[in-house]
Amino acid sequence: MTVPHPIISITGSSGAGTTSVKRIFELIFRREQVTAAYIEGDAFHRYDRNAMKAKVLEEEMRGNPNFTHFHPDANELETLAAVFEEYGRLGTGRTRTYVHDDNEAALYNAPVGTFTAWRDFEPSDLLFYEGLHGCAVTGTVDLAQHADLSIGVVPVINLEWIQKIHRDRATRGYSAEAVMDVILRRMPDYVRHITPQFSRTGINFQRVPIVDTSNPFIARWIPTPDESMLVIRFANPRGIDFPYLLSMIHDSFMSRANSIVVPGNKLDLAMQLILTPLILQLVERKRRSS
Fold first, then answer.
1. How many other CB atoms are found less than 10 A from the CB of residue 222?
2. Stretch (H or E) spanning 208
3. How far apart are alpha carbons 74 and 68 in whole angstroms?
4. pTM score, two decimals?
5. Is residue 174 part of a domain?
6. What is residue 10's predicted lDDT score, i.e. its pLDDT?
7. What's the CATH number where 220 sits?
8. Do the domain assignments include residue 2?
9. Angle between the 18-31 and 267-289 helix axes, to the nearest 10 degrees?
10. 172 pLDDT band (50/70/90 cuts)?
């Protein structure tokens, strides 16, 4: 953890909703005039799209049908840790972009499924990471130790699958059966390498639908915020003004001493109320140390 150059880490699986959470952070940054350097976790994949397909086939030939982007070996976690360490120490570092679709291909003038060139961060108040491995810990890497504020975005599993199915069908042209195959192939790595990170995050936001999601593979719609509740868990509730939050968020309640439950359509409000003072504390500590 750092003071002069703080790091915020958002961790969530594919389809969990980390991109939506990132937009809320961006809104807070603009309002509070905080300048952020950004890292997308996909930028630190070890393989581009074609190389990953070849690696998956190679692993299958070796008897491992479950090699996925969730696995540490499919990512440059050592490089990511080095970037975190450098930023925390000096406020400098570099990243790149993984090109997901045609829009990004046009924007970056690079083929879909490849990486852009590495680029240095512009001067910033803090570093913002959003991806699969923000709090990953392996035998050689401890990314969790670098985060001054770590957030888990963890919808219940059936909802996460529904969101992924709808996203991949709409934006990537996958069939429901193809997405199901991906989910099944990823499950061992999800359990071993993604789930443990949510025990290391400082705050978890977990959306829970209040409609039937028992068969996510035939769901015609993603449950709306009005059809959900949001469970917010604080690893360390000391300093969290729960009475204030309960008074500001209508129909919220505490389910445990470290957890508050709010209506799903209050995600934006809840995140702004909770995260704005935490972000400002990081920036104030940075400025005092300068």
1. 19
2. strand 203-209
3. 7
4. 0.92
5. yes
6. 96
7. 3.40.50.300
8. no
9. 50
10. low
3-state helix, strand, coil in the chain (%, to 5): 45, 20, 35
The span from the CA of 2 to the CA of 5, in Å, is 6
Structural domain that includes position 133: 7-289
Range with lowest mean pLDDT among 119-123, 170-174, 196-200, 222-226: 170-174
Q: How far apart, in Å, are the Cα atoms of 250 and each of 156, 236, 253? A: 23, 24, 9
Q: Decide: 28 and 113 in contact? Cβ < 8 Å.
A: no
Q: 200 in a domain, yes or no? A: yes
| Residue 2 pLDDT | 61
Rg (CA), the chain: 19
H-run or E-run covering 58: helix 49-61
Domain count, the chain: 1
> Which tokens go with 224?
């709306």
Edge-to-edge, what's the strand order for the sheet holding 203-209? 36-40, 126-131, 7-11, 149-153, 203-209, 228-234, 259-263, 253-256
Element (H, E) at 60: helix 49-61
Q: Is residue 168 domain-resident?
A: yes
